[in-house]
């Protein structure tokens, strides 16, 4: 059994945006008891993470870390950036996506995602402005 769907994940701006419930609903409605779920984001300036979903400070700290690691191209020390057609947050978004993951694999058992107690699935938006992102879900049993 294989099942595939595309989710639209709304990111109101930069940062980590959880969408675990939507993914869990897809798995539940599939009727699959055991398998492997692959998630793939169809964009080049955002990424996917499995991360703690209990304390919002974790998300804020991760976002701040990446902002400090790769600042906007209009910040000091970033004058080397050539790609800037879409604004000063675009190339830094591509760099952050290259440092993180554009796909995830999560086991499914007993019809549920096999995530740890405090784990959630997040879209990590690297651009400042809000937008909808497409995430392809593929469940193989």
Helical content band: 10-25%
- Taking the alpha carbons of the first and last residues, their distance comes to 5 Å
Domain count, please report it.
Answer: 1
* Unreliable residue runs: none
Considering the protein shown, what is the CATH homologous superfamily? YjbQ-like
CATH class equals Mainly Beta
Shape: elongated
Largest sheet, strands/sense/barrel: 6 strands, antiparallel
Can you name the CATH architecture? Sandwich
Number of strands: 6
Oligomer: single chain
In round numbers, the mean pLDDT is 97
What class, by secondary structure content?
Answer: alpha+beta
Give the topology, please.
Blueprint: E1 2-18, H1 20-30, E2 34-41, E3 46-52, H2 56-69, H3 90-99, E4 103-109, E5 112-113, E6 119-140
Q: What brief labels describe this structure?
A:
6-stranded antiparallel β-sheet; 6 strands; Jelly Rolls; 45% strand; 141 residues; 3 helices; alpha+beta
How would you describe the overall organization of this protein?
The chain is an alpha+beta fold and 141 residues long. Helices cover 25% and strands 45% of the residues. A hairpin with a 2-residue loop joins β4 and β5. It is elongated.
Give the gist of this structure.
With 141 residues, this protein is an alpha+beta fold. It is built from 3 helices and 6 strands; from the N terminus they run βαββααβββ. The mean pLDDT is 97.
